[in-house]
Amino acid sequence: MLQLAGIITFAVLFAVFLLLGFYGRFWRKGDLSKLDEWALGGRRFGAFIVWFLVGADLYTAYTFIAIPSSVFSIGAIYFFAVPYVAVTFGIAMWAMPKLWKVSKKEGHVTGADFVRKHFNSRSLAILVALVGIVAELPYIALQIVGMLSVMFVMLYGLGSIKLVSDLALILSFLILAVFTYFSGLRGATLTAIFKDALILFTVALVIIVAVLNIGFTKSFQSLPVKYYHLLPLQVNAYWSLFLMSALALYLYPHAITGSLSAKDPKSLRISQSLLPLYGVGLALLALFGILVYGSSSAHAFLLKIPAASRGTYVVPALIFYSLPSWLTGVAFLGIFIGGLVPASIMAISQSNLLTRNIIKEIKPNLTSKGEALVAKVGTIVFLFLALGFVFLFPLSYSVQLQLLGGILILQTLPSIFLGLITNKLNKYGLMAGLIVGIGYGLYLMEEANHFKTWTTTLITLPPFNFPLFIGLIALVANLVVVLVISLIALPFTNKNAVVEN
Amino acid sequence: MSDHSLDGSKRNRLIIITSAVLTIIPFIALIDIPFYNRTNPELGGLPFFYWYQILWLFLAAALFATAGVLYNRYGGE
Q1: A102 — contact with chain B (CB < 8 Å)?
Q2: In CATH, what number is assigned to the domain containing residue A123?
Q3: Does residue A493 lie in a domain region?
Q4: pLDDT of residue A415
């Protein structure tokens, strides 16, 4: 269990964090009962703030729990997160300013807004919104796993492992729900800066301490070859994982929300182009999964935990055994709010979708006050649903939660990204493709895991004799359907356009 | 007058192509997995596979930012 000094620094910094969260309500003051203000911060953040806000989506539990956990238990293949964050911003710096401009002109707040207008289809927009909402759930679940892993290490020794992990989960969830309900995106922005400062500081510190005390040579020593680099069979899985993740990131509603809160397309482009630097912290954290093998005390602690959830505690354990207690408290708070802030940003974008693209379609005369109320209540409901996803995968495989979200959200790529490039796609084709992509993706998930507990998102499908990321296969199926139907419908679409003219 | 605008559009196209090439380089460097999928040369005990990709985080940011600044200044919105 964490010593008193650590608990005190954790508590004091958490109080500062809460102050910032609530001060955020008054920061660059706007009318928070309006949805634009609550959710987009009034669309006036500069390059620097957007850099942090979107970067905050990067330093999540994905970074300090899921990826190190997988590198620890499976090996080099889960370093795919690094090329993923290296290239994703190369896509974003061109796609997002384009989406920003359309959105500003038409008053869009979500990706589904864009789809509704561009393809003139309410049903497609509702479908895209629904997929966005569902795809965020496992991603939020991953954040809850991250928060609970810190709580677990802090409370370890208080009672049985079962009791401690239940307690950690309940505490984490309650804090998340209350925080999100009261703060909105403004709160999330200020706290994002605070959290990233803490995390960068501690990551740098632990890496220096661990590399000096343990070193890579000692950590790699006892490890099999799959930790040094990819096995030949993993090469195709590697690129399919990182390229698909790179395409998926900016389809997530929360990434779109973050981008749209920029004040102009040029500063948005610059902030995106510099974001690969943010990934350096992610890369170092991924290496914790290797370094922990060299720390006998941290490794011994991990061996006391059942293998199915062991990986989750890699980073907290390495920090706990490398730093003095008070610094551990600082680091733990960084990780804890590193799950809390993104989860709250994600839940906010879910409720944006719910109010604008689903409820308002059904009940168009909703007042803006009513809209904001629905959004806030929706957020809480979604957080509960996300909690359910926590139990979908064993904790050591929590990275699969994010990848599952990726499989789902990728299916909106034709409607959003291709929609930005062309207007020749047929809306029924897009709907059919989306449904086929999701259905096929989920079916492949079941098949890859032999209809048992989900532990993988890779599958070996003939004619190939190597595994690929299911998201890629489902997206290809989706695109084929979209293109075939659009080609068949093209003559009719053109005729309609002529008639309209 | 018309010569002037021709120059402008020619220069514009050059800027767009340059930004596109700068953006694509990191993709190529990282898609070529067989090139970096090996242990040696190590850096302080860290296999080539790892440090090569970390290095590309810096290079990607530099290339993307150059492309972004170029495009923002001369290429339009």
Answers
A1: no
A2: 1.20.1730.10
A3: no
A4: 95
